[in-house]
Each structure stands twice: as structure tokens, then as C-alpha cells.
Amino acid sequence: MRISGASHMCNVHNVIFRGYNSIYLQAPHVQEADMDAFLGYCRAWCKLVTLHAEEEERNYFPEAEKLLDDSVFEQTHEEHGLPAILGLVGKW
Questions:
Q1: Which terminus in the chain has less CB density within 10 A, N or C?
Q2: What is the pLDDT, as a whole number, of residue 80?
Q3: Which domain holds residue 28?
Q4: How far apart are CA 41 and CA 55, in angstroms?
Q5: CA 66 to chain centre
């Protein structure tokens, strides 16, 4: 269970990281005609990150805290920074 959970977590974070990189690398090259499609892609990525973060908060962190110190994940709440990202994408 722990190995498959860690492997799943690694794969999901890899997908998130690759999606972020694709947005970062492509953003300067998006033409006006493609802006709606690109922003749709950005919104889909934000939805993925939001759902993943919610799932971590609901299931993963509480179970891990049972095995570890209760304060081990305090910083993760600050690191996700989703409201700021979603606010930027929502402007368009």
C-alpha cells in the first residue's frame, strides 16, 4: 500500500509539473486566435491541481498524520497557492 501510494503520488505530481511546464513554455507563443483554447487548457490544469489538492487534504494528509507527527503537513497548506493561480486564470 505505501509503495503503490508513493508511486501514485509521484506520478500525479509529475503530471502536474509537466502540465505547468507546458503552460509556462507555450504561453509566450499563443496567438490571439488560440487564446480561448489555451485558457481552456489552463483551466483544465487548474481543475486537476485543485482536485488533487482537495483529495490530499481529505484523504492522504489525515492518514499520513496518523503515522507521523500531526504538524508534518502544516506547510503544505501554504505551498499549494491555488487561490492565486485560479485568480489569475479566472481574469481571462
A1: N
A2: 57
A3: 2-90
A4: 21
A5: 24
Q: What is the full per-residue pLDDT of the chain (92 aa) written as tens digits?
A: 466 778 888 999 999 999 999 999 999 999 999 999 999 999 999 899 889 888 888 888 778 778 777 676 666 655 555 666 666 666 65
Would the pTM of this model clear 0.70, i.e. be above it? yes
Domain count, the chain: 1
Residue type, 77: H
- Three-state SS string over the chain comes to CHHHHHHHHHHHHHHHHHHHHHHHHHHHHCCHHHHHHHHHHHHHHHHHHHHHHHHHHHHHHHHHHHHCCCCCCCCHHHHCCHHHHHHHHHCC
> Which of 47, 50, 45 is CA-nearest to residue 21?
45
Is there a contact between 73 and 64 (Cβ–Cβ < 8 Å)? yes
